[in-house]
Amino acid sequence: MKPIQVGLLGIGTVGSGTFNVLTRNQEEIRRRAGRGIEITMVADLNVERAREIVGDRARVVADAREIIANPEIDIVIELIGGYGIARALVLEAINAGKHVVTANKALLAVHGTEIFAAASAKGVMVAFEAAVAGGIPIIKALREGLTANQVQWVAGIINGTTNFILSEMRDKGLDFDVVLKEAQRLGYAEADPTFDIEGVDAAHKATLMSALAFGIPVQFDKAHVEGITKLAAADIRYAEQLGYRIKLLGIAKRRDDVGGIELRVHPTLVPAKRLIANVEGAMNAVMVQGDAVGTTLYYGKGAGSEPTASAVIADLVDITRLHTADPDHRVPHLAFQADELRDTPVLSIDQVRTAFYLRLRVADQKGVLSSITSILAASDISIDAVLQRESNEGEHQTDVIILTHETQEGAMRAALAQMQALPTVLAPIVSLRKEELA
């Protein structure tokens, strides 16, 4: 049987890994897919570099549209990234009747509704396992493996850069700015790390997981996004003393009590005994809670040339197996049938319910703790634990750490404003959310 012919758009880190793994494991992949899969064309602006990678095993061109226009190409892999030219090329490939594999989480989180609709209209597939958590097959788990379940929540460490930084801050007691510079030196962080450290990259991925988990359209603009730039080493230390670790989590949660979905990314205290709290360095992990299966955990490398290539090639195999099938019998792009997606609203952050960690820098005098706890009690916010550090010799101020039970975000914000106005509160209050994940 004639091999499936693939065109590769972009042969950078992931593209070169995809080409090399597909070549190296060609026979094993053929045995799984039922026929050969070959990258026969590569498009990259750096033609010379591309030729050094592929040699004479594929034709190299500078113009990606030559691949799209080639009637021999069955599948187009988009590894260019970004929202601009990538969106145009993906839509053109779909319009030309070609299946698409992409690792572009930003593109799908922002324009996924348009792209999936175009693919359905043309009867082609858009596969994106590599767009979330690199080599971890979380998309397949949500689309297929957990299909019997009503998913209750998904929570994931889905950005390796921020997890590396938080791990180093905890291990070495260093502040964020110091560790960021070290992460950049070691290659774990980009020269411009904004998308990572401000939580945007994780929010793109959480948006896709929320759509797969709950059968809703992709709605990146509704996600609440906070990064790790304001985290202090002191808070990581205090969290550790209380039995927690701080992780940047992407969280999507079903809220049947109000008929909505929570979609949020932010630093989160997690009990140290949870497996996900012990995911260190640049590794990724995703937890999924289903009503039938309970809690499942998916762990592995969330980035890198060959780990991400593993996911790209898995998509190639899936498409190869299914491309001749009736489109109505394929696995839907977002796990649910296209006409069964629901308009369940994504809740505003004020409607979110979670527990909190609070750090208050206060004057070391009588009555301070009483005034703080009175405000919380009046707001119907119950306290789980309190940690008060003794002031150093000659100091007249100290830190008070409070863990609360679950409450509504809006109520906590109002209480924080009242506490901040107290004359005995001497610095901006640090407020972090806490999740038990059980």
UniProtKB/TrEMBL annotation:
Top-rank EC class of the record's enzyme: oxidoreductase
GO biological process, one term: methionine biosynthetic process
Annotated residues for binding of NADP(+): 9-16
UniProt binding sites for L-homoserine: 190
Residues annotated to bind NADPH: 105
Protein name, entry field: Homoserine dehydrogenase
Assigned protein family: Belongs to the homoserine dehydrogenase family.
InterPro entries recorded: ACT-like_dom_sf (IPR045865), ACT_dom (IPR002912), Asp/hSer_DH_NAD-bd (IPR005106), HDH (IPR016204), HDH_cat (IPR001342), HDH_CS (IPR019811), NAD(P)-bd_dom_sf (IPR036291)
Keyword Nucleotide-binding: no
Top-level lineage group: Bacteria
Record Pfam families: ACT (PF01842), Homoserine_dh (PF00742), NAD_binding_3 (PF03447)
Entry GO MF terms: homoserine dehydrogenase activity; NADP binding
Lineage: Bacteria, Pseudomonadati, Pseudomonadota, Betaproteobacteria, Burkholderiales
UniProt EC number: 1.1.1.3
